[in-house]
Hints:
This protein has 522 residues and is of the alpha/beta class. The chain has 16 helices and 16 strands. Helix 2 crosses helix 3, helix 13 crosses helix 14 and helix 15 packs parallel to helix 16.
Amino acid sequence: MKKRKIKIFDTTLRDGEQSPGASMSITQKVEMAMMLESMGVDRIEAGFPVSSEVQFRAVEEISRKVKNATIVSLARCVKGDIDAAYEAMKEAEDKMLHLFIATSPIHRKYKLGMSKKEILKAIGENIRYAKYYFDKIEFSPEDATRTERDFLFEVIDVAIRSGATIINIPDTVGYTIPEEFSELIKSIVRNIPKISEIDLSVHCHNDLGLAVANSLAAVSSGATQVEVTVNGIGERAGNCSLEEFVMAINVRKDYLPFITNIKTEKLYNSSKLLESLTGLIIPRNKPVVGENAFLHEAGIHQHGVINNRNTYEIIKPEQVGRGTENLVLGRHSGKHSFKEKLKHYNIKLSQEQFNKAFSKFQKIADKKKEVCDEDIFLIISSILGQYPDGYKLDYFDVKTGNSAPPSAKVRIKKGKDKRMSTNTGNGPIDAVFNAIDSAIGIKTKLENYIIHGVGAGRDAQGQVKVVLKIGENRYAGRGDSTDIIEASANAYINAINRYNFSLEAAKVIRKNNRMKKIKEVS
């Protein structure tokens, strides 16, 4: 049987980043995009340019750097959104617009306040408008699985006749089940003859834990593209997991006669990189990439695996990039060994970034006997998450115990400016946070604090993730160190720097928009 090619559309940097606390800096998004490109992803949805200044700049930078995948930008059926997407992707070698509008009864009534006729008109007008800028246009009827079947067919027909080259069927709230979704895809193929001339895509959410199953059902019923995210991150319960979908096809070739361009040996690398960039910790029992995926504790399992790994393993660790790297780093490792480790994980840094990363590696190696791969990912995450002109922790001193309120003294620097402050708190970390606030002169509210040990043993690093509310918005920050108080302080400052960066980015965009208007008038 001839195997059918399934295109992989990765939306980690758009839908995935919408996970609470998963926001990434521009530099981090570019690094993740480069990893996705190296893995063989066909299409990378880089962001929603009109939604924020940072989103616009991230899409712009990814469009410059990625050469071997189609860059996609999201847009509503609004001309301003389409214009922003075009401007952000001007330098992309291969670009595509992803246009959407909600079509289900509940969305029409409560979100859009639009009739069926108005929605059909908006679809036609905006796709035709977008054709002036884009050869490739994907159209998504949002909440398609809760849309009346006849109206959905009408929407798809109008979209194709107006110029859409990909039709995407989103299970926006993870409502459908495999048998039902399979029948829907088959009915679209039967009732829309022109669908055979273009790609039919699916975008499944995981609210009922069925995103991967629904996606597999869809490709078995005629879909030619699947939208996924690394580690399955995304809104609410997440999206179809890239690694789970790809390995299901890879393992069950007898039942799923499909192929993808994905280099499966890079799946674990991409998973760990995303974990370190976002701070969203992979559950130990996560399929394919979780720490327990290839561990066996039960005696009967261990006996079977010792004799033949196939007794209890349907995937070989090396197939997904695990257990193949024997280069151990420590205090005696030089730049060449460190560079080889980065090369193994397809991490590309500028010379300045490499020097900073190696310097941090040396400091960690002096404290630990062995620097594990998780440490390497933390180092890279910290370098990519830095704001060169932002605040930095220059010095801290903490006094704590059960006989007096904990206190902390900190010195914060920004360029040549240094600020010192002392404060107290409910504990040593709270005292440090209060001291940082008073030194910088900012009012914040700590909404989330997560600490995660990386590596094993007493010298393991701690990774801290915080979410701060500053004004009306929330900003995530991450920090790492073998000293958990220092890791906490760095995470806190990282979140404040992200807030300041968003303000500066907004000023730049507003200035550019003013200059653009002046040129148009003149």
